[in-house]
Each structure stands twice: as C-alpha cells, then as structure tokens.
Amino acid sequence: MSALNPLTIGQVIDQIIATGQLTLNDQRLLHNLSRIQPSISHEENHKIQKLRERLQMGLLKLT
After folding, report:
1. Residue ranges per domain, the chain?
2. Long-range CB contacts (within 8 A, 24+) of 1-9
3. Could you tell me which residues come within 8 angstroms of residue 60 by beta carbon, excluding any fewer than 6 positions away?
4. Which residues are within 8 A (CB) of 21 and not within 5 positions of it... i.e. 6 or more apart?
5. Could you say which of 7, 12, 17, 40 is the most buried, measured as most Cβ atoms within 10 Å of its Cβ?
6. pTM of the model
7. How far from chain centre, in Å, is Cα 43?
8. What's the rounded Cα separation, in Å, for the pair 58 and 39?
9. What is the pLDDT of residues 16-63, one digit of tens each?
10. The organism sits in which domain of life (predicted)?
11. Which helix (H) or strand (E) covers residue 22, if one does?
C-alpha cells in the first residue's frame, strides 16, 4: 500500500475474489483499512457481504 495510491477496502476484496484466496496478509490489510477508513460506501458494504458469503460457501481458500 503506497501513500500516494492507497488501496481501498473494495480493491482488496476484488483482489481476494479474483484470486480465490484469502491470505493472512489480506486479513491484516482489511483490518488496517477498516480502522483508517472511517466509513464505507454502499458498494464496499456490498463487496464485504459478497466476500462473507463466499467464505461461508467455501469458495475462498484460506492461506
């Protein structure tokens, strides 16, 4: 994550879904982003729900 071009929660989730893997680094990054980004957009909220559903269905590999 660069200070000039910081990642957003939505971008991280898009990357997780594209790779089909949720790494420990991804988890940490999402946690940190959620702390520094005070509010999330409707679109990001939808992506979080989509990620949660994929996890529950076993469609993402935890690495």
Report:
1. 7-62
2. 1/29, 7/33, 8/33, 8/37, 8/44, 9/33, 9/34, 9/37, 9/40, 9/44, 9/47, 9/48
3. 16, 17, 20, 21, 22, 51, 54
4. 60, 61, 62, 63
5. 12
6. 0.83
7. 12
8. 28
9. 999 999 999 999 999 999 998 878 899 999 999 999 999 999 999 999
10. Bacteria
11. strand 21-22
